[in-house]
Specification:
The chain is mainly β. The chain is 6% helix and 47% strand. Strands 1-25-24-23-22 form a 5-stranded mixed sheet, with no helix packed on it. The chain has a 4-stranded antiparallel sheet with strand order 2-28-27-26, with no helix packed on it. The longest helix has 8 residues, at 2-9.
Length: 356
Amino acid sequence: MLWILFSLLAVDSTNLEAILTLDSLPGSSETFFERPADIAFDKDGNIYVLDVKAKKVFTWDSAGGFLGSYGSSGQAPGEFVFFGHSSRGVGFINVMGQQVYIYDGAKREVSVYGLGDLSFRKNLSFKRGVGSQVIGFWAITPNRFLFHERSFEEELVRILDAEAGVVTTLAQNKVMNMRIEGANDASGKRRRHPSSVTVIGFAPTTVAGFNSALGQIQVGHGDTAFFQTYDTQGKQAGKLKLKIPRLEVSKKDMKEYSSQAMFAKTSFYKADYADNKAYYEYILSTGDKGYLVYNASPIFKDMAGYVINPKGEVESRFSYHCGENGDLLGSQGRVFAVNTSEEGAFTLQELRVPGK
């Protein structure tokens, strides 16, 4: 492990430079960012950003000029909820051909809209197929979708068909970042709700991604320095081995992790820590250039990781600070940063990722 760490110290560190900044939203009280969660692009380069708290889709043209917003809160077809048991809201947006697909985690439905004016067309229900919290969603064909799900006990990466159900399971792993207390009563019978949950900070988890430009699915796990690639039928296409280290969890890491709201507001959740961070928590495809593989701090979203070429070789190291409630979002090989100021204002910028 040490030789990998020393060899990476010789690798150049790169800056992810902004190449496009989206226009600010108009000053109306009805149009402001609250929690940008996902991004998508159409064939003309128009940009669609889903905000799960505002319950709207905001759109820009390819030059970053603001076009408008769509959507409203409600249970009716074409309306959004996003917030169920999750305090962060669960929602994802994809564009394929002439249609926009939006997954609403609270309703467990995919709403399909026409491109351009986002006119509602139909709902696809996954209430029988998806029972866990969805932490990743990608449209891979007009009727098939890649779901990354997580419950208290296991993580799943599956391809689901809107009519036929499960097509194939690409990963089914036991959750390593939680310990459940009081799951069973004295007789051994399963309780409906456990008495407490200990969350293991920085423990490795299942990681999934999708490059729609290449039709490639990526699935890995943070306790191993590699990930598998699959085609859109779920057939394994390759395996990329990564020469990257696992870094120690520092006191600074622990302090930031334990200051999250879920530990302060209730005694149900408790914090503990792994000795080392995962090899990586996230994969973002950068098209034919390769991938970003990285870890993120839980609150201030300090990203640190590696630019990986299509062969799995490390091209450079990178770090990026997004700020509280910020994130890195990617689709079709493009990477955007959701940056936040100390006052909580959002700025969305496309980043140039180096690569051959």
